[in-house]
Amino acid sequence: MAEAMGTQMTSPDYHYGMGERVVLLGQKWIPRDEKCISSARRFVRDIALDWYTTEEVPDIAELLASEIVTNALVHGAVDFPTPSTLRIAVGRDGPVMTVDVYDSCITVPELRRADSLETSGRGLAIVETLSLKWGWNLHRHGKSVWFQLAAWP
C-alpha cells in the first residue's frame, strides 16, 4: 500500500474534499455497468456547459470523467457479491471545477506508463497531463478519484 500511496499525484500536504467552500453543481449515481459510461460523460459535459466554463473545459472534463469512470468500472470492486453503484459529483471552488468519482473499492489507483504497443493503461496518464490536479481519497466505504480543472476566469 505504501508503494501505491506514492502514485497519488498531488503534494503530500494537499487534501481535496467536498468541503464548505465547494459548491456542489450536481451529482449522479450510475450502476456498475460499462454501458453507463456514456451517461457519466454526458452528465459531466452538460454541467460544464450549463455553468459556462471556459471553451475547452467541457471536452476535457468529458474525456477525463470517461477515463476515471472506466477505471472504476474495470478495476474497482469487480468481485463484490452484490451490485454496487458509482457516484459522480461535480463541484466548484472559485475558478476550479472538481469531478469526483466514488466507488466501493479500496484499491488505490496506480499511475503507470503503457508501452507503445499496449492498448490500455494510459487513462491516469491522460488525467495527470490534462488536469490542474488529480488524486484519490480513501473513505470508510471505498474511495474517490478526482480531478480538477481551471474552468472559470
What would your notes on this structure say?
The protein is α+β, with helices and mostly antiparallel strands. It has one domain (22-150): Heat Shock Protein 90 (2-Layer Sandwich), CATH 3.30.565.10. The chain is 29% helix and 27% strand. The chain is built from four helices and five strands; from the N terminus they run H-E-H-H-E-E-H-E-E. The protein has a five-stranded antiparallel sheet. Helix 2 runs antiparallel to helix 3. It is globular. Mean pLDDT is 83; it is low at 1-15. It holds the Pfam family HATPase_c_2. Keywords: Kinase, Serine/threonine-protein kinase, Transferase. This is Histidine kinase/HSP90-like ATPase domain-containing protein. Residues 35-147 form the Histidine kinase/HSP90-like ATPase domain.
